[in-house]
User: Fold these one by one.
Assistant:
Number 1:
Amino acid sequence: MSKENKKQVQSASTPPGGFRVIAREFMKDRLALTSLIILVTVLLAVFIGALLLNQEQVMKVNLLGRYLEPGVNGYILGTDEGGKDIFGQLIIGARNSIIIGFTITIITSIVGISIGLISGYYGGRLDGFLMRIVDFIMILPVTMLIIVFVTVIKNYTIYHFILIMSAFYWTAKARLFRTRTLSEASLDYVNASKTLGTSDFMIMFREILPNLSSLIIVNLTLNFAGNIGIETSLTYLGFGLPSTVPSLGTLIANARNADILENKTWIWLPAAIFILVMMLCINYVGQAFQRAADAKQRLG
């Protein structure tokens, strides 16, 4: 066989790389591609815009400019009760909410996936001990505990909120990945690796973990969107971020006032639309990444 023929056979038998598989999935699904474009554009606009804005200036109270409608005096989205720029609050608040949601997702995923892998791989007493801890945390009234912490902690900040949320929201991931790891640990490739003397760490994180990539992607995307929603809900109820910290939740919390809810919709509606668009885009992009991960596993 000539060298050219050998190269053709090798290229035909070599599965496409990860980026090519992902690109192919997005090209097949125009809705996911559109969602990805919108998501990237919005994230760039939010983070670049937040860098250009002065938060102190945006949050400065101007009683002479209360409840200005969109377009009046140069305010693109109007002003709120304190005369503060809604557009500036939306940009900075969106950045804060995205950072909060992303950080909580990363922390809880690292903790939950690691504990789930260790528990499912080793089993036995260690599995029982770790799962009892998970069970104990899961039966706690998490919302009430968060409210208590928010009330007790002085000078409550974004960092406190992230730590409190991360302390309780890793347990579902641990249980989910523990179940999948139990089934993976009994397969032939794991037994073969043990026979060859491969370390447990390498088996867990180099062999089992990649086979859970589809589940990880789905879990990450859903949790990212969900954590943004949790921050918004708690802040709306008055137990999230303080009113001095712009976020999507603090903007929507203005809708608790019946007059603002009905007659001054420009204060809360942009944040609600932003959350809706973000949730839909994250969902469609996550589904495309899941299909790409599944295809990559099938192709080897």
Note: The chain has one domain: 51-299.
Number 2:
Amino acid sequence: MTELTGTPVRTEMTAGNRRITSKHSDHRTVLVQAADGKPLNPCHPARARELLRKKRAVRVSRHPYTIRLLLQNQAETMILLYAEEESA
């Protein structure tokens, strides 16, 4: 009936159903680039701080905050980043 009468009704919000339709994203991620500049999966800010502190990455830009992995540590760092994703 709603498709004929006008604006669509979100079924997730009707009849008191308060189910969240999509995963909550608070946009607190750091973009990550490979040593050659290709984009990789983003990481958590704490992980980015750790990589910067251990000299495994350098900051590329501030808005959006982006880091670039250093070539000599890229393989080890990628393993850490993907292990973090799988545990989340």
Note: Helices lie at 2-5, 45-53, 74-87.
Number 3:
Amino acid sequence: MSLINRFKNKNESFRMYYQEAELNTSLGEKLISWFPSAPRDYIVVFIGTDRSTGDALGPLAGSLFSSLNPKHLTIYGTLHQPVHATNLQDYLDKIKLKHRNPFIIAIDACLGKNTSIGQLIAGTGPISPGAALNKRLPDVGDIHLTGVVNVSGFMEYAVLQNTRLSIVMDMATKISELLVYIDQRLCYQHAQPAIVLPINKEKTM
């Protein structure tokens, strides 16, 4: 769980409400524009726990995305195997050992202004999981995507516990669909890691 005002100012960010019709193409292409030009192992780390409704956004999205059998994005963090405060460093160490030159997309819930609830915020650079609850955890991600699930500012733990499951589920579904769009834009060349495919303009017209 992150606070959106903890993002570093030097990093680029882009936000949209999860109900917007052009979410996949607009937000998806923005995320892809931050991918490296050279092939990398693309890793998605879904952060959170199912013990808190608001903080379940990450593992919910991870489980939904996993059920869609992505080809080019490797998943860490689901409802059955969550990535959270007590095992985050272990998973980061595992990723470094298992994957060649990994490029990590961090997915997490966050708190923000009342008018920001429902926004998906993409940004370059890492996020600081646990910032909303004043926990010191490792920064995660070369880029990140966070979802504003509730209001920040007072008794954040209680706010997370009382977040509506409906909005968390809806946002998790949209995140999984967004990642499917990104996964379909990637391909393998021989034994190399994934690269981004150019958009076929004839198909999009």
Note: Confidence is low (pLDDT under 50) at residues 3-9.
Number 4:
Amino acid sequence: MTGTVEEIWTAEAGSEPMETRDAVTAVAEGGLRGDRYFEGTGYYSAFDTCEVTLIAAEALAAIRDEAGIDLTDGRHRRNLVTRGVDPHDLLETRFRAGEAVLEGTRPRPPCAYVEELAGESGVKAALGDGRAGICASVVETGEIEAGDELRIVESLDADPDDLAAAIRERQD
């Protein structure tokens, strides 16, 4: 399964507007260099460890078409906009984005703070139904550029039958 990094967004500090970038360095166990969460100045930095966030361009288009809310200017507050892959399909996997390797860790719920910063009623609800994207951690440092391929390199979701067979082998 492959997709593309369509856009890269960062903000220097919490509440600051998101800015689009052509490229960014993803730093292992840190996040995206120059982003508020890498710097520890994000709104949720004190209690939420979400190094990198991803959202689907297709979800943003659906929100625009269905709710009349256009978040394509960065008001979605996510770092990487993907195309051709649902970020939820990257959960429990390690995937390559450019030169970096990331690990999909958990869904990213929509929050009232995103709606407040977007300055538009209905944003939180529009990002519901799994459209708010996911969190990922950086496993291997590397450069990510807009247009880079997203490709799964390892599934971390073990098959229960494989686990049972491995346990039986160890017991024998």
Note: The chain has one domain: 2-171.
